[in-house]
Amino acid sequence: MVNQKGGVGKTTSTINLAAALAEYGRRVLLVDFDPQGALSAGLGINPHELDLTVYNVLMDRKVDIRDAIHHTGVENVDLLPANIDLSAAEVQLVNEVAREQVLDRALKKVEDDYDVVLIDCQPSLGLLTVNALTAAHGVIIPLICEFFALRAVALLVETIDKVQDRLNPRLQVDGVLATMYDARTLHSREVITRLVEAFGDKVFETVIKRSIKFADATVAAEPITTYAGNHIGADAYRRLAKELISRGGAP
User: Fold this and answer.
1) What is the pLDDT of residues 132-142, one digit of tens each?
2) What is the value of pTM for the model shown?
């Protein structure tokens, strides 16, 4: 899940997509790759009380990734958490050999334990995000339905193309996900039209509508699929999971 702009629904989408995929029988590992630790907190794990996080896995080869992984309250969803320590990794990795491939090496040890790994990236296009893109098979770009959000995507697509060309030839854009959509406004509808013009069939048919229920579920440290299972937001993420499966992004 990548977008260098913050506040577009990356973490919310990561949690809820994971829960929906788990409902469809997939074993999911979530990787919190943002020093703010929002993904970890959103699943009820206090990132500041952890001894082992993704930072230790990246920086110390003696740390076994399995020791840092936590089971969550959602069946079939595990978490590799993060906290503020991760912000130091960006600086420390600069002098590492093959610094873009550190996350990929770590995840290879557990790739057979899971059907899907979802990486929630920080809002930046720095070395951590490049690590995530190098480890990934596909990218989901959550995009808030506002015009200025569209302008930032060109830089993101350029970064994805560079990683694909130089580091990870298998990388592809699985889809662009429109978030915080308000059908009552002409503005939101026009943004969707522009998105489809720019990305064509890469735009997911599923659109995530703006709803206070997502914030309520976050406060409860639950995905919306369990917090309010019959809500339109829960149904939307189930549809997104089906779309991702049908596109081959979650085999």
Assistant:
1) 999 999 999 99
2) 0.94
